[in-house]
Design goal:
Layout (H helix, E strand, L loop, with lengths): L4 E2 L1 E6 L10 E3 L5 E5 L15 E5 L2 E4 L3 H8 L1 H7 L5 E7 L5 H5 L11 H14 L4 E13 L2 E4 L15 E5 L2 E5 L4 E3 L2 H13 L3 E4 L2 E5 L2 E12 L6 E11 L6 H4 L3 H25 L12 H5 L9 E8 L6 H15 L2 E2 L5 E3 L1 H24 L13 H16 L10 H29 L3 E2 L3 H10 L17 E2 L14 H10 L7 H10 L3 H52 L2 E3 L2 E3 L2 H57 L25 H19 L7 H28 L1
Parallel strand pairs: 2-6, 2-17, 7-16, 7-17
Antiparallel strand pairs: 1-18, 3-4, 4-5, 8-9, 8-12, 8-15, 10-11, 13-14, 15-16, 16-19, 20-21, 22-23
Amino acid sequence: MGTRKKVHTFVRVKPTDDFAHEMIKYGDDNKSIDIHLKKDTRRGVVNNQQTDWSFKLDGVLHNASQDLVYETVAKDVVAQALDGYNGTIMCYGQTGAGKTYTMTGTTENYKHRGILPRALQQVFRMIEERPTHAITVRVSYLEIYNESLFDLLSTLPYVGPSVTPMTIVENPQGVFIKGLSVHLTSQEEDAFSLLFEGETNRIIASHTMNKNSSRSHCIFTIYVEAHSRTLSDEKYITSKINLVDLAGSERLGKSGSEGRVLKEATYINKSLSFLEQAIIALGDQKREHIPFRQCKLTHALKDSLGGNCNMVLLTNIYGEAAQLEETLSSLRFASRMKLVTTEPAINEKYDAERMVKNLEKELALLKQELAIHDSLANRTLVNYDPMDEIQIAEINSQVRRYLEGTLDEIDIINLRQIQEVFNQFRVVLSQQEQEVESALRRKYTLIDKNDFAAISAVQKAGLVDVDGHLVGEPDGQGFGLGVTPFSAKPGKKSKSKKTFKEQLRPSTPPPKPVAFEDFKNERGSEINRIFKENKSILNERRKRASETTQRINAIKREMDVTKEALNFQKSLREKQGEYENKGLMIIDEEEFLLILKLKDLKKQYRTEYQDLRDLRAEIQYCQHLVDQCRHRLLTEFDIWYNESFFIPEDLQVALKPGGSIRPGMVPVSRIMSLGEDAQDKFSQLQQVLLPEGPDSVAFYNAKVKTEQKHNYLKTMMGLQQAHRK
């Protein structure tokens, strides 16, 4: 385990023209803040009211930019997450004090982005700087609203709403949210798209203190998993970064909340009170029990509060005299949090399957090594031990010197060394490729040849030569220097381009049955596969239900025969005379066996009937899934058919992967106007905003795509409402 360390606490003061200079003072080192209140003269001459407070923190941020806030508060936490340490950054404070602005920022201006988008950017920048590691990034977005858990990314088409409510589950590995969707992101733009998608689903309301007040606690989590490409594959590190935007505490007398907003404020204040109780308990070394389960917020953050985590608290306060009581309350919370200690440690895990494979490879290598050793009798000093990091580094150095020409040859010692030499050749080659690509990216803009929307945007920006051809030469691998033209050589027309268009748009649309078969084999293959699987399951359940029904009917017939035989035995016993012993009826063995048989048959009947009921419920559910898949398959086919054969050719490029319009996103009748508006907006961003911040491409691309999606959804809802009227 790691060493214990205290939680870092910072305070950010919201800028204001009415700053209380006489009441709020900062220390010279910007690590303390003093509060002074004037005595209330209405309490009389004898007045023991406290008027002065002093709070020592790790930093006070006054009139600080978003850049400075991130550098001070979050940068180290995110950097250590790539080394395997968990991290949590939490924004706490009064409503309207600037928590959401600090955590998320604004999407309209790249410079005003908050901690969350900057953290995503830093993660992907650090991944680019580590070519020796294969690093995967996943994200999730949780909302806690009125003590209920919600997935802010459930609106994505491939997620959908959860059938069962989400719950907080604990296991030896920690706390996780059952039912919360986690999304793999391979690039920065995808992560921003998920962030903006979640932000549009957050619940906000307006009151006198804040016109856009967050009405829920939100936790955006970044999951990192890193495998070394050069060392053992079986050992890897994992970490997660929790970015917590708490809803603001409210004084109902000041906020003037009513109705639903009042109910929300009650839940918010209650959960923040439980959070403070948990912090007080964590700060008391004598306390054994910590009340994490009092509310969903503290339970979900159990790992972060005092656990295996680098914890940072950023307290947002007002600088105005009218809010001084709430400011004092927030600073007291920060002081209590500073007493809490955490024990961060690197999260190392071992892949059992890879470990077995590595051991098998090791065994095979040793056998080959011994065979060579036996054949070479004069080589008795062969080292069979696995190579350590120092030896690997030495081989890497020898390979580099050999490639540079300063080393004539590499001495061969054993088979393991030979394989490591080839492996280091691969590593050096990979690093050189990364360095070349990084150098090109610093000097040029690399655009995918298949990204037709980006190429169209550059064409509109005027980045073409005097002959009308795009600048740059293709490298043959899907990327170009500058912007790659469609043709293989600039200045020459390509025959393949014409063939592509001819294949894309036949002279007459094919019959729908023929096109439907092509659709099922290509774009609709995944939906068709799911449809077939669900139909197969449905048929299997129907077959089982039929077999169960036959068994039930057979049991029923046998029960009827047994009842008739039993009634015959009873009537025969009554004719012959009944015998009693101490009030009990005496029956013969045959009748007794019939009674036992009837009892067993009834038991079998009940069991089979229950199975039949369960199967009927499953059949109903499977039938629902099959109907859904069939409907989606036909809907997607109609969209594909219209877009493939009825949309103008000059807009086909916008519908390609990576284009500004996603297939099925816009009705065919409206695709002309909406496509042009989106492209004009993208060109404007390229020409005006990107020169100010070259790193902002992914940020603005994700913003545009998210806005397009939600504008389309709003348009469709409006059309549906108008149609109903």
